[in-house]
Protein backbone atom coordinates (compact mmCIF):
# COMPACT_ATOMS: atom_id res chain seq x y z
CA UNK A 1 0.00 0.00 0.00
CA UNK A 2 1.20 3.46 -0.73
CA UNK A 3 2.26 6.03 1.80
CA UNK A 4 0.35 9.13 0.66
CA UNK A 5 -0.77 10.52 4.02
CA UNK A 6 -2.67 13.80 4.49
CA UNK A 7 0.52 15.32 5.94
CA UNK A 8 2.50 14.33 2.86
CA UNK A 9 -0.18 15.87 0.61
CA UNK A 10 0.07 19.12 2.61
CA UNK A 11 3.83 19.11 2.19
CA UNK A 12 3.67 18.39 -1.57
CA UNK A 13 1.00 21.07 -2.05
CA UNK A 14 3.18 23.56 -0.27
CA UNK A 15 6.17 22.63 -2.47
CA UNK A 16 3.86 23.03 -5.48
CA UNK A 17 2.67 26.45 -4.24
CA UNK A 18 -0.96 25.41 -4.18
CA UNK A 19 -3.20 26.22 -1.20
CA UNK A 20 -5.35 23.24 -0.28
CA UNK A 21 -8.32 22.96 2.07
CA UNK A 22 -8.56 20.14 4.63
CA UNK A 23 -11.27 18.59 2.52
CA UNK A 24 -9.06 18.65 -0.59
CA UNK A 25 -6.18 17.13 1.40
CA UNK A 26 -8.31 14.17 2.45
CA UNK A 27 -9.61 13.63 -1.06
CA UNK A 28 -6.18 13.96 -2.69
CA UNK A 29 -4.59 11.57 -0.20
CA UNK A 30 -7.14 8.92 -1.18
CA UNK A 31 -6.90 9.51 -4.93
CA UNK A 32 -3.13 9.77 -5.04
CA UNK A 33 -2.75 6.57 -3.00
CA UNK A 34 -4.77 4.68 -5.61
CA UNK A 35 -2.81 6.24 -8.48
CA UNK A 36 0.60 5.68 -6.87
CA UNK A 37 -0.28 2.05 -6.07
CA UNK A 38 -1.12 1.57 -9.71
CA UNK A 39 1.91 3.29 -11.25
CA UNK A 40 4.32 1.66 -8.76
CA UNK A 41 4.27 -1.36 -11.09
CA UNK A 42 7.10 0.33 -13.04
CA UNK A 43 9.48 -0.57 -10.24
CA UNK A 44 8.93 -4.24 -11.15
CA UNK A 45 9.21 -3.72 -14.90
CA UNK A 46 12.92 -3.20 -15.03
CA UNK A 47 15.55 -5.71 -14.00
CA UNK A 48 19.25 -5.47 -14.67
CA UNK A 49 20.98 -2.81 -16.66
CA UNK A 50 18.62 -0.67 -18.73
CA UNK A 51 19.52 2.82 -19.83
CA UNK A 52 17.07 5.61 -18.99
CA UNK A 53 15.41 7.50 -21.85
CA UNK A 54 14.62 11.12 -21.10
CA UNK A 55 14.10 12.19 -24.68
CA UNK A 56 12.58 9.97 -27.40
CA UNK A 57 14.67 11.13 -30.36
CA UNK A 58 18.30 11.44 -29.26
CA UNK A 59 19.85 14.79 -30.10
CA UNK A 60 22.98 16.37 -28.75
CA UNK A 61 24.71 19.71 -29.14
CA UNK A 62 21.92 21.57 -30.89
CA UNK A 63 23.44 24.90 -31.88
CA UNK A 64 22.15 27.94 -33.69
CA UNK A 65 23.89 31.00 -35.03
CA UNK A 66 24.52 33.57 -32.30
CA UNK A 67 22.69 36.44 -33.97
CA UNK A 68 20.33 39.02 -32.54
CA UNK A 69 16.75 38.58 -33.73
CA UNK A 70 13.76 40.85 -33.12
CA UNK A 71 12.29 40.23 -29.68
CA UNK A 72 9.48 41.61 -27.51
CA UNK A 73 9.69 45.23 -26.47
CA UNK A 74 9.61 45.98 -22.77
CA UNK A 75 6.08 47.26 -23.19
CA UNK A 76 4.95 44.05 -24.92
CA UNK A 77 6.63 41.88 -22.31
CA UNK A 78 4.80 43.73 -19.53
CA UNK A 79 1.47 44.01 -21.35
CA UNK A 80 -0.06 40.90 -19.77
CA UNK A 81 1.44 41.32 -16.29
CA UNK A 82 -1.05 41.54 -13.42
CA UNK A 83 0.94 44.52 -12.10
CA UNK A 84 3.97 46.51 -13.21
CA UNK A 85 5.81 49.70 -12.33
CA UNK A 86 8.75 51.59 -13.82
CA UNK A 87 9.06 49.11 -16.67
CA UNK A 88 9.26 46.09 -14.35
CA UNK A 89 7.04 43.33 -13.03
CA UNK A 90 5.66 44.36 -9.64
CA UNK A 91 5.15 41.75 -6.94
CA UNK A 92 4.47 41.57 -3.22
CA UNK A 93 7.28 41.31 -0.67
CA UNK A 94 9.35 38.14 -0.85
CA UNK A 95 10.11 38.04 2.87
CA UNK A 96 7.62 38.26 5.71
CA UNK A 97 7.93 41.47 7.70
CA UNK A 98 7.91 39.67 11.03
CA UNK B 1 -23.24 26.00 -54.68
CA UNK B 2 -23.48 22.92 -52.47
CA UNK B 3 -22.89 23.19 -48.73
CA UNK B 4 -19.33 24.42 -48.32
CA UNK B 5 -19.17 23.27 -44.70
CA UNK B 6 -19.60 19.62 -45.73
CA UNK B 7 -16.66 19.68 -48.16
CA UNK B 8 -13.16 18.36 -47.46
CA UNK B 9 -10.33 20.86 -46.99
CA UNK B 10 -8.70 19.65 -50.21
CA UNK B 11 -11.86 20.28 -52.23
CA UNK B 12 -12.33 23.71 -50.61
CA UNK B 13 -8.76 24.54 -51.61
CA UNK B 14 -9.50 23.63 -55.21
CA UNK B 15 -12.78 25.59 -55.20
CA UNK B 16 -10.75 28.55 -53.96
CA UNK B 17 -7.88 28.16 -56.42
CA UNK B 18 -10.30 27.80 -59.35
CA UNK B 19 -12.20 30.89 -58.15
CA UNK B 20 -15.47 28.99 -57.68
CA UNK B 21 -15.61 30.06 -54.02
CA UNK B 22 -13.74 32.88 -52.35
CA UNK B 23 -12.03 32.45 -49.01
CA UNK B 24 -14.43 35.02 -47.55
CA UNK B 25 -17.39 32.92 -48.75
CA UNK B 26 -15.93 29.72 -47.35
CA UNK B 27 -14.93 31.32 -44.05
CA UNK B 28 -18.33 33.02 -43.68
CA UNK B 29 -20.11 29.71 -44.23
CA UNK B 30 -18.19 28.18 -41.32
CA UNK B 31 -18.54 31.24 -39.06
CA UNK B 32 -22.31 31.27 -39.59
CA UNK B 33 -22.56 27.58 -38.77
CA UNK B 34 -20.31 28.00 -35.71
CA UNK B 35 -22.40 30.85 -34.38
CA UNK B 36 -25.55 28.83 -34.86
CA UNK B 37 -24.35 25.48 -33.51
CA UNK B 38 -21.45 26.02 -31.13
CA UNK B 39 -23.92 26.25 -28.24
CA UNK B 40 -24.69 22.57 -28.89
CA UNK B 41 -21.13 21.23 -29.04
CA UNK B 42 -19.11 23.83 -27.09
CA UNK B 43 -16.27 23.17 -29.53
CA UNK B 44 -14.99 26.75 -29.53
CA UNK B 45 -13.93 28.87 -26.57
CA UNK B 46 -13.45 31.84 -28.88
CA UNK B 47 -14.89 32.60 -32.31
CA UNK B 48 -12.51 34.77 -34.30
CA UNK B 49 -15.01 36.27 -36.78
CA UNK B 50 -13.51 39.65 -37.56
CA UNK B 51 -9.88 38.58 -37.78
CA UNK B 52 -10.63 35.43 -39.76
CA UNK B 53 -12.61 37.41 -42.33
CA UNK B 54 -9.75 39.85 -42.67
CA UNK B 55 -7.35 36.93 -43.21
CA UNK B 56 -9.77 35.42 -45.74
CA UNK B 57 -9.95 38.68 -47.60
CA UNK B 58 -6.13 38.76 -47.70
CA UNK B 59 -6.12 35.24 -49.15
CA UNK B 60 -8.60 36.35 -51.82
CA UNK B 61 -6.38 39.28 -52.66
CA UNK B 62 -3.31 37.04 -52.92
CA UNK B 63 -5.20 34.85 -55.39
CA UNK B 64 -6.37 37.85 -57.43
CA UNK B 65 -2.80 39.20 -57.50
CA UNK B 66 -1.44 35.90 -58.76
CA UNK B 67 0.71 35.32 -55.68
CA UNK B 68 1.99 31.77 -55.04
CA UNK B 69 -0.58 29.68 -53.17
CA UNK B 70 -0.18 26.94 -50.55
CA UNK B 71 -2.01 23.62 -51.01
CA UNK B 72 -4.59 24.76 -48.44
CA UNK B 73 -4.70 28.42 -49.36
CA UNK B 74 -7.94 30.16 -48.44
CA UNK B 75 -9.18 27.22 -46.32
CA UNK B 76 -10.06 28.27 -42.74
CA UNK B 77 -8.87 26.26 -39.75
CA UNK B 78 -9.63 25.81 -36.04
CA UNK B 79 -6.78 26.01 -33.54
CA UNK B 80 -6.57 24.24 -30.18
CA UNK B 81 -6.53 26.78 -27.40
CA UNK B 82 -3.14 25.72 -26.04
CA UNK B 83 -1.44 27.24 -29.10
CA UNK B 84 -0.57 30.91 -28.79
CA UNK B 85 -2.25 33.39 -31.15
CA UNK B 86 -1.65 37.13 -31.12
CA UNK B 87 -5.13 37.89 -32.47
CA UNK B 88 -7.19 35.71 -30.13
CA UNK B 89 -7.21 34.91 -26.41
CA UNK B 90 -5.36 31.74 -25.40
CA UNK B 91 -6.56 30.02 -22.22
CA UNK B 92 -5.43 26.39 -22.51
CA UNK B 93 -8.83 25.61 -20.98
CA UNK B 94 -7.78 27.14 -17.67
CA UNK B 95 -9.18 29.96 -15.54
CA UNK B 96 -5.62 31.00 -14.72
CA UNK B 97 -5.16 32.26 -18.30
CA UNK B 98 -8.65 33.68 -18.84
CA UNK B 99 -8.48 36.65 -21.22
CA UNK B 100 -4.76 36.33 -21.94
CA UNK B 101 -3.74 37.55 -25.41
CA UNK B 102 -0.26 36.18 -26.14
CA UNK B 103 2.51 38.45 -27.39
CA UNK B 104 3.68 35.97 -30.02
CA UNK B 105 2.31 33.35 -32.41
CA UNK B 106 3.17 29.67 -32.08
CA UNK B 107 5.33 28.53 -35.01
CA UNK B 108 2.47 26.37 -36.34
CA UNK B 109 0.16 29.39 -36.16
CA UNK B 110 2.68 31.50 -38.06
CA UNK B 111 2.87 28.70 -40.65
CA UNK B 112 -0.89 28.45 -41.20
CA UNK B 113 -1.05 32.24 -41.53
CA UNK B 114 1.78 32.04 -44.07
CA UNK B 115 -0.20 29.35 -45.91
CA UNK B 116 -3.19 31.70 -46.27
CA UNK B 117 -5.43 29.84 -43.80
CA UNK B 118 -7.84 32.06 -41.79
CA UNK B 119 -8.16 31.12 -38.09
CA UNK B 120 -11.83 30.44 -37.31
CA UNK B 121 -11.40 30.27 -33.56
CA UNK B 122 -9.81 28.55 -30.58
CA UNK B 123 -11.02 25.10 -29.59
CA UNK B 124 -11.83 23.69 -26.17
CA UNK B 125 -9.61 21.22 -24.31
CA UNK B 126 -9.15 19.67 -20.91
CA UNK B 127 -7.34 22.21 -18.76
CA UNK B 128 -3.70 22.32 -19.95
CA UNK B 129 -4.55 19.22 -22.04
CA UNK B 130 -4.83 17.04 -18.94
CA UNK B 131 -7.64 14.64 -19.67
CA UNK B 132 -9.31 12.52 -22.31
CA UNK B 133 -12.85 13.89 -22.41
CA UNK B 134 -12.72 17.76 -22.18
CA UNK B 135 -14.66 17.38 -18.92
CA UNK B 136 -11.70 18.99 -17.15
CA UNK B 137 -11.98 22.19 -19.19
CA UNK B 138 -12.68 25.18 -16.94
CA UNK B 139 -15.18 26.28 -19.58
CA UNK B 140 -17.40 23.19 -19.64
CA UNK B 141 -17.18 19.98 -21.70
CA UNK B 142 -17.43 19.80 -25.47
CA UNK B 143 -20.02 17.41 -26.86
CA UNK B 144 -19.77 14.68 -29.47
CA UNK B 145 -21.74 15.44 -32.67
CA UNK B 146 -22.58 11.72 -32.97
CA UNK B 147 -24.38 11.90 -29.60
CA UNK B 148 -24.46 15.15 -27.66
CA UNK B 149 -24.68 13.29 -24.33
CA UNK B 150 -21.26 11.79 -24.98
CA UNK B 151 -17.67 13.03 -24.78
CA UNK B 152 -15.81 13.94 -27.99
CA UNK B 153 -12.56 12.57 -26.54
CA UNK B 154 -9.78 14.63 -25.07
CA UNK B 155 -7.86 16.52 -24.52
CA UNK B 156 -8.57 17.83 -28.03
CA UNK B 157 -12.35 17.35 -27.92
CA UNK B 158 -12.95 20.92 -29.10
CA UNK B 159 -11.01 20.25 -32.31
CA UNK B 160 -12.53 16.79 -32.88
CA UNK B 161 -16.12 17.97 -32.30
CA UNK B 162 -15.54 21.05 -34.48
CA UNK B 163 -14.23 18.95 -37.38
CA UNK B 164 -16.75 16.09 -37.10
CA UNK B 165 -19.61 18.56 -36.60
CA UNK B 166 -18.50 20.51 -39.70
CA UNK B 167 -17.80 23.61 -37.63
CA UNK B 168 -14.32 23.63 -39.22
CA UNK B 169 -12.94 21.80 -42.26
CA UNK B 170 -9.81 20.91 -40.29
CA UNK B 171 -8.05 21.73 -37.02
CA UNK B 172 -4.79 21.70 -35.15
CA UNK B 173 -4.41 19.50 -32.10
CA UNK B 174 -1.67 18.47 -29.72
CA UNK B 175 -0.99 14.92 -28.56
CA UNK B 176 0.85 14.03 -25.35
CA UNK B 177 -0.61 10.57 -24.77
CA UNK B 178 -3.41 10.40 -27.33
CA UNK B 179 -5.06 13.84 -27.26
CA UNK B 180 -5.33 13.95 -31.07
CA UNK B 181 -5.89 10.25 -31.77
CA UNK B 182 -8.44 9.36 -29.07
CA UNK B 183 -10.75 12.30 -29.94
CA UNK B 184 -10.43 11.40 -33.63
CA UNK B 185 -11.40 7.77 -32.96
CA UNK B 186 -14.54 8.59 -30.96
CA UNK B 187 -15.78 11.23 -33.43
CA UNK B 188 -15.15 9.32 -36.68
CA UNK B 189 -12.45 11.73 -37.78
CA UNK B 190 -8.78 11.37 -38.68
CA UNK B 191 -6.01 12.45 -36.30
CA UNK B 192 -2.24 12.18 -36.60
CA UNK B 193 0.59 12.58 -34.13
CA UNK B 194 3.75 13.06 -36.19
CA UNK B 195 7.20 11.81 -35.14
CA UNK B 196 8.42 13.73 -32.09
CA UNK B 197 10.21 16.80 -33.40
CA UNK B 198 8.63 16.80 -36.87
CA UNK B 199 6.50 19.82 -35.95
CA UNK B 200 7.82 22.71 -33.87
CA UNK B 201 6.43 22.98 -30.33
CA UNK B 202 7.33 26.69 -30.05
CA UNK B 203 4.23 28.45 -28.74
CA UNK B 204 2.52 25.26 -27.59
CA UNK B 205 1.74 25.67 -23.88
CA UNK B 206 3.76 22.69 -22.71
CA UNK B 207 2.20 19.79 -20.85
CA UNK B 208 5.03 17.24 -20.94
CA UNK B 209 7.81 18.51 -23.17
CA UNK B 210 9.33 15.13 -24.01
CA UNK B 211 5.94 13.75 -25.10
CA UNK B 212 4.02 16.68 -26.66
CA UNK B 213 3.61 16.86 -30.42
CA UNK B 214 1.31 19.02 -32.59
CA UNK B 215 -0.65 17.43 -35.44
CA UNK B 216 -3.70 17.55 -37.73
CA UNK B 217 -7.36 16.69 -36.98
CA UNK B 218 -9.38 16.28 -40.19
CA UNK B 219 -12.21 14.44 -41.90
CA UNK B 220 -10.01 12.45 -44.26
CA UNK B 221 -6.45 11.22 -44.68
CA UNK B 222 -5.49 13.53 -47.55
CA UNK B 223 -6.53 16.61 -45.56
CA UNK B 224 -4.38 15.44 -42.65
CA UNK B 225 -1.43 14.92 -45.00
CA UNK B 226 -1.85 18.38 -46.54
CA UNK B 227 -1.99 20.00 -43.11
CA UNK B 228 1.04 18.10 -41.80
CA UNK B 229 2.93 19.31 -44.87
CA UNK B 230 1.99 22.92 -43.97
CA UNK B 231 3.04 22.73 -40.29
CA UNK B 232 6.07 20.41 -40.37
CA UNK B 233 9.69 21.49 -40.70
CA UNK B 234 12.72 22.53 -38.75
CA UNK B 235 12.38 25.48 -36.37
CA UNK B 236 15.48 26.98 -34.73
CA UNK B 237 13.18 28.14 -31.88
CA UNK B 238 12.56 24.53 -30.80
CA UNK B 239 15.80 22.74 -29.97
CA UNK B 240 14.06 19.35 -30.24
CA UNK B 241 12.90 20.12 -33.77
CA UNK B 242 14.19 17.57 -36.33
CA UNK B 243 16.85 19.02 -38.61
CA UNK B 244 15.66 17.18 -41.72
CA UNK B 245 12.38 17.17 -43.61
CA UNK B 246 10.37 13.94 -43.55
CA UNK B 247 9.13 14.56 -47.09
CA UNK B 248 5.62 15.21 -48.38
CA UNK B 249 2.79 13.32 -46.70
CA UNK B 250 0.38 14.31 -49.49
CA UNK B 251 2.70 12.62 -51.99
CA UNK B 252 2.77 9.49 -49.82
CA UNK B 253 -1.05 9.39 -49.69
CA UNK B 254 -1.32 9.79 -53.46
CA UNK B 255 1.03 6.89 -54.15
CA UNK B 256 -0.21 4.47 -51.47
CA UNK B 257 0.00 0.81 -52.50
CA UNK B 258 -0.85 -2.23 -50.41
CA UNK B 259 1.49 -4.57 -52.35
CA UNK B 260 4.09 -6.20 -50.08
CA UNK B 261 2.81 -4.41 -46.97
CA UNK B 262 3.64 -6.20 -43.70
CA UNK B 263 1.31 -5.45 -40.82
CA UNK B 264 2.12 -6.19 -37.20
CA UNK B 265 -0.66 -6.83 -34.68
CA UNK B 266 0.46 -6.07 -31.14
CA UNK B 267 -0.37 -9.07 -28.97
CA UNK B 268 -0.78 -6.87 -25.88
CA UNK B 269 -3.26 -4.51 -27.58
CA UNK B 270 -5.59 -6.75 -29.51
CA UNK B 271 -7.95 -8.47 -27.13
CA UNK B 272 -8.22 -7.84 -23.39
CA UNK B 273 -9.98 -4.72 -22.22
CA UNK B 274 -11.45 -3.67 -25.57
CA UNK B 275 -15.15 -3.20 -26.15
CA UNK B 276 -16.66 -6.03 -28.24
CA UNK B 277 -17.72 -3.78 -31.13
CA UNK B 278 -14.34 -2.06 -31.21
CA UNK B 279 -12.61 -5.46 -31.39
CA UNK B 280 -14.98 -6.58 -34.13
CA UNK B 281 -14.21 -3.42 -36.18
CA UNK B 282 -10.47 -3.96 -35.69
CA UNK B 283 -10.68 -7.56 -36.90
CA UNK B 284 -12.64 -6.34 -39.90
CA UNK B 285 -9.87 -3.85 -40.77
CA UNK B 286 -7.21 -6.56 -40.55
CA UNK B 287 -9.31 -8.90 -42.72
CA UNK B 288 -9.80 -6.20 -45.35
CA UNK B 289 -6.08 -5.48 -45.51
CA UNK B 290 -5.28 -9.19 -45.77
CA UNK B 291 -7.80 -9.63 -48.56
CA UNK B 292 -6.21 -6.68 -50.35
CA UNK B 293 -2.80 -8.38 -50.25
CA UNK B 294 -1.09 -7.33 -47.01
CA UNK B 295 0.57 -9.92 -44.82
CA UNK B 296 -0.09 -10.02 -41.09
CA UNK B 297 2.23 -11.02 -38.25
CA UNK B 298 1.69 -10.96 -34.52
CA UNK B 299 4.31 -8.98 -32.61
CA UNK B 300 5.09 -9.17 -28.92
CA UNK B 301 5.61 -5.92 -26.99
CA UNK B 302 5.67 -7.08 -23.38
CA UNK B 303 6.75 -3.72 -21.97
CA UNK B 304 3.57 -2.07 -23.27
CA UNK B 305 1.99 -3.47 -20.13
CA UNK B 306 3.88 -0.81 -18.17
CA UNK B 307 3.31 2.09 -20.58
CA UNK B 308 0.36 3.72 -18.79
CA UNK B 309 2.14 3.51 -15.43
CA UNK B 310 5.35 5.01 -16.83
CA UNK B 311 3.35 7.72 -18.56
CA UNK B 312 1.55 8.75 -15.37
CA UNK B 313 4.90 9.27 -13.69
CA UNK B 314 6.74 11.03 -16.54
CA UNK B 315 3.84 13.29 -17.51
CA UNK B 316 3.06 14.67 -14.03
CA UNK B 317 6.78 15.08 -13.34
CA UNK B 318 7.30 17.19 -16.47
CA UNK B 319 3.95 19.00 -16.04
CA UNK B 320 4.66 19.98 -12.44
CA UNK B 321 7.79 21.69 -13.67
CA UNK B 322 6.23 23.21 -16.83
CA UNK B 323 3.28 24.67 -14.92
CA UNK B 324 5.53 26.43 -12.41
CA UNK B 325 5.50 29.36 -14.83
CA UNK B 326 1.92 30.18 -13.80
CA UNK B 327 3.06 32.16 -10.79
CA UNK B 328 0.95 35.35 -10.99
CA UNK B 329 3.98 37.48 -11.91
CA UNK B 330 4.36 37.88 -15.68
CA UNK B 331 0.97 36.96 -17.09
CA UNK B 332 -2.30 35.32 -16.15
CA UNK B 333 -4.38 35.58 -13.02
CA UNK B 334 -3.29 37.04 -9.69
CA UNK B 335 -5.31 36.42 -6.55
CA UNK B 336 -4.54 38.57 -3.50
CA UNK B 337 -5.19 37.02 -0.10
CA UNK B 338 -6.21 39.45 2.65
CA UNK B 339 -3.67 41.46 4.62
CA UNK B 340 -0.19 42.03 3.29
CA UNK B 341 0.75 38.60 1.99
CA UNK B 342 4.19 37.56 0.76
CA UNK B 343 4.54 36.69 -2.92
CA UNK B 344 4.66 33.02 -1.99
CA UNK B 345 1.18 33.27 -0.46
CA UNK B 346 -0.05 35.20 -3.50
CA UNK B 347 1.24 32.41 -5.76
CA UNK B 348 -0.36 29.68 -3.66
CA UNK B 349 -3.71 31.50 -3.55
CA UNK B 350 -3.59 32.19 -7.30
CA UNK B 351 -2.79 28.60 -8.17
CA UNK B 352 -5.48 27.32 -5.78
CA UNK B 353 -8.03 29.55 -7.45
CA UNK B 354 -6.81 29.31 -11.04
CA UNK B 355 -6.17 25.56 -11.43
CA UNK B 356 -8.87 22.89 -11.58
CA UNK B 357 -8.87 19.53 -9.74
CA UNK B 358 -7.07 17.41 -12.36
CA UNK B 359 -4.28 19.96 -12.79
CA UNK B 360 -3.73 20.13 -9.03
CA UNK B 361 -3.80 16.34 -8.81
CA UNK B 362 -1.14 15.96 -11.50
CA UNK B 363 1.12 18.76 -10.23
CA UNK B 364 1.11 17.25 -6.76
CA UNK B 365 1.65 13.74 -8.16
CA UNK B 366 4.56 15.03 -10.24
CA UNK B 367 6.08 16.79 -7.27
CA UNK B 368 5.87 13.49 -5.41
CA UNK B 369 7.44 11.50 -8.28
CA UNK B 370 10.37 13.92 -8.39
CA UNK B 371 10.96 14.20 -4.65
CA UNK B 372 14.13 12.75 -3.21
CA UNK B 373 13.71 9.24 -1.94
CA UNK B 374 11.16 8.40 -4.65
CA UNK B 375 12.87 9.82 -7.73
CA UNK B 376 14.95 6.73 -8.61
CA UNK B 377 12.23 4.21 -7.87
CA UNK B 378 9.44 6.00 -9.75
CA UNK B 379 10.67 8.54 -12.29
CA UNK B 380 13.93 6.62 -12.85
CA UNK B 381 12.13 3.33 -13.49
CA UNK B 382 9.59 5.04 -15.74
CA UNK B 383 12.42 6.35 -17.92
CA UNK B 384 13.83 2.85 -18.18
CA UNK B 385 10.41 1.55 -19.24
CA UNK B 386 10.61 4.10 -22.02
CA UNK B 387 13.79 2.41 -23.23
CA UNK B 388 12.15 -1.02 -23.06
CA UNK B 389 9.20 0.22 -25.12
CA UNK B 390 11.56 1.57 -27.75
CA UNK B 391 13.34 -1.79 -27.82
CA UNK B 392 10.05 -3.68 -28.21
CA UNK B 393 9.05 -1.39 -31.06
CA UNK B 394 12.43 -1.72 -32.79
CA UNK B 395 12.03 -5.49 -32.71
CA UNK B 396 8.43 -5.30 -33.98
CA UNK B 397 9.39 -2.97 -36.82
CA UNK B 398 12.03 -5.51 -37.83
CA UNK B 399 9.25 -7.81 -39.06
CA UNK B 400 6.44 -5.33 -39.82
CA UNK B 401 6.27 -2.05 -41.75
CA UNK B 402 3.55 -0.67 -39.49
CA UNK B 403 1.73 -1.82 -36.37
CA UNK B 404 -2.05 -1.70 -36.03
CA UNK B 405 -4.12 -1.48 -32.85
CA UNK B 406 -7.59 -0.28 -32.02
CA UNK B 407 -7.09 3.44 -31.20
CA UNK B 408 -9.23 3.39 -28.08
CA UNK B 409 -10.57 0.65 -25.81
CA UNK B 410 -14.16 1.90 -26.14
CA UNK B 411 -16.35 4.17 -28.20
CA UNK B 412 -17.35 7.57 -26.76
CA UNK B 413 -18.56 7.26 -23.18
CA UNK B 414 -21.23 9.40 -21.53
CA UNK B 415 -20.35 12.78 -20.04
CA UNK B 416 -19.91 12.24 -16.30
CA UNK B 417 -19.35 8.48 -16.55
CA UNK B 418 -15.67 8.45 -15.56
CA UNK B 419 -15.19 11.89 -14.07
CA UNK B 420 -14.80 10.64 -10.49
CA UNK B 421 -12.42 7.82 -11.32
CA UNK B 422 -9.04 9.23 -12.44
CA UNK B 423 -7.59 5.77 -12.99
CA UNK B 424 -10.41 4.65 -15.31
CA UNK B 425 -9.99 7.90 -17.24
CA UNK B 426 -6.24 7.26 -17.65
CA UNK B 427 -6.89 3.88 -19.31
CA UNK B 428 -8.54 5.52 -22.35
CA UNK B 429 -5.03 6.13 -23.64
CA UNK B 430 -3.72 2.60 -23.19
CA UNK B 431 -3.11 2.08 -26.94
CA UNK B 432 -1.95 5.58 -27.79
CA UNK B 433 0.60 6.24 -25.01
CA UNK B 434 3.41 3.95 -26.29
CA UNK B 435 3.89 6.16 -29.39
CA UNK B 436 4.50 9.24 -27.24
CA UNK B 437 6.88 7.42 -24.92
CA UNK B 438 8.88 6.14 -27.91
CA UNK B 439 8.55 9.26 -30.11
CA UNK B 440 7.15 7.32 -33.08
CA UNK B 441 4.31 8.60 -35.29
CA UNK B 442 0.75 7.37 -34.72
CA UNK B 443 -2.51 8.03 -36.51
CA UNK B 444 -6.17 7.14 -36.05
CA UNK B 445 -8.44 6.43 -39.01
CA UNK B 446 -12.19 5.62 -38.75
CA UNK B 447 -13.03 1.95 -39.30
CA UNK B 448 -16.77 1.96 -38.83
CA UNK B 449 -19.45 2.03 -36.16
CA UNK B 450 -19.39 -0.38 -33.23
CA UNK B 451 -22.26 -2.85 -33.53
CA UNK B 452 -23.58 -2.47 -29.97
CA UNK B 453 -23.90 1.32 -29.82
CA UNK B 454 -23.58 2.60 -33.41
CA UNK B 455 -20.74 4.95 -32.41
CA UNK B 456 -17.49 5.51 -34.34
CA UNK B 457 -14.44 3.38 -33.81
CA UNK B 458 -10.88 3.99 -34.99
CA UNK B 459 -7.84 1.95 -35.99
CA UNK B 460 -4.41 3.20 -34.99
CA UNK B 461 -1.38 2.96 -37.27
CA UNK B 462 2.10 3.16 -35.74
CA UNK B 463 5.22 3.55 -37.88
CA UNK B 464 8.94 3.77 -37.04
CA UNK B 465 10.29 7.20 -36.07
CA UNK B 466 10.71 9.53 -39.11
CA UNK B 467 8.58 7.22 -41.27
CA UNK B 468 5.43 9.32 -41.11
CA UNK B 469 5.03 8.84 -44.85
CA UNK B 470 4.66 5.08 -44.33
CA UNK B 471 1.94 5.73 -41.74
CA UNK B 472 0.05 8.01 -44.12
CA UNK B 473 0.30 5.43 -46.93
CA UNK B 474 -1.32 2.76 -44.78
CA UNK B 475 -3.93 5.22 -43.48
CA UNK B 476 -4.84 5.99 -47.06
CA UNK B 477 -5.09 2.30 -47.97
CA UNK B 478 -7.44 1.65 -45.02
CA UNK B 479 -9.54 4.68 -45.85
CA UNK B 480 -9.91 3.57 -49.48
CA UNK B 481 -10.97 0.06 -48.47
CA UNK B 482 -13.74 1.52 -46.32
CA UNK B 483 -14.83 4.20 -48.75
CA UNK B 484 -15.22 1.41 -51.33
CA UNK B 485 -17.57 -0.33 -48.91
CA UNK B 486 -19.50 2.72 -47.65
CA UNK B 487 -19.42 4.85 -50.80
CA UNK B 488 -18.17 7.85 -48.78
CA UNK B 489 -16.01 8.54 -45.70
CA UNK B 490 -17.58 7.63 -42.33
CA UNK B 491 -18.08 11.29 -41.50
CA UNK B 492 -20.86 11.50 -44.11
CA UNK B 493 -22.97 9.43 -41.67
CA UNK B 494 -22.70 11.94 -38.80
CA UNK B 495 -26.15 13.09 -37.59
CA UNK B 496 -27.37 16.50 -38.67
CA UNK B 497 -26.39 18.83 -35.82
CA UNK B 498 -29.12 21.29 -36.73
CA UNK B 499 -31.87 18.91 -35.73
CA UNK B 500 -30.12 17.30 -32.71
Description of the molecule:
- The complex is a heterodimer of chains A (98) and B (500).
- Chain A is mostly helical and 98 residues long.
- Helix content of chain A is 38%, strand content 4%.
- Chain A has a domain at 6-43: Histone, subunit A (Orthogonal Bundle), CATH 1.10.20.
- In chain A, strand 1 (84-85) and strand 2 form a beta hairpin.
- Chain A is flat and about 50 Å long.
- Chain B starts with 8 loop residues before the first helix and ends in a 14-residue tail after the last helix.
- Among the domains of chain B are: 4-261 and 484-499, Amidase signature (AS) domain (Amidase signature (AS) enzymes), CATH 3.90.1300; 317-375, no CATH class.
- Classes of the chains: A mainly alpha (98), B alpha/beta (500).
Descriptors:
heterodimer, A: 98 residues, mainly alpha, Histone, subunit A, 4% strand, flat, B: 500 residues, alpha/beta, Amidase signature (AS) enzymes, 11-stranded mixed sheet, 16 helices, 11 strands, 39% helix, 12% strand
Amino acid sequence: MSEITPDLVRHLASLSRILVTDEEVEQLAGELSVIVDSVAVVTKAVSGDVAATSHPIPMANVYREDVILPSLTQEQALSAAPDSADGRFKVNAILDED
Amino acid sequence: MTDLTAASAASLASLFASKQASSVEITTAFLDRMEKLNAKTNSYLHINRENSLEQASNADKQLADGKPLSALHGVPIAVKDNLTTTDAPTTSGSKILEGWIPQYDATVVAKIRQAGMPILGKTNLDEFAMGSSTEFSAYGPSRNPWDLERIPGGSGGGSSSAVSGHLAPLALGSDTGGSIRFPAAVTGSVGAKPTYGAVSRYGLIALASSLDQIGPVTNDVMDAALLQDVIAGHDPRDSTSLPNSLGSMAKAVAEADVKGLRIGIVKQLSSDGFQEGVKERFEDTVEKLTAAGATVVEVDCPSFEYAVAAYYLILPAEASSNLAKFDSVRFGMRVMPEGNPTIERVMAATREHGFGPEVKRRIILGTYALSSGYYDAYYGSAQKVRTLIQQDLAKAFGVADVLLTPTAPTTAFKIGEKINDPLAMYLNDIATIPANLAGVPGMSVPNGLAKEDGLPSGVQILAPAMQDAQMYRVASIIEKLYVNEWGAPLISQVPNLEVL
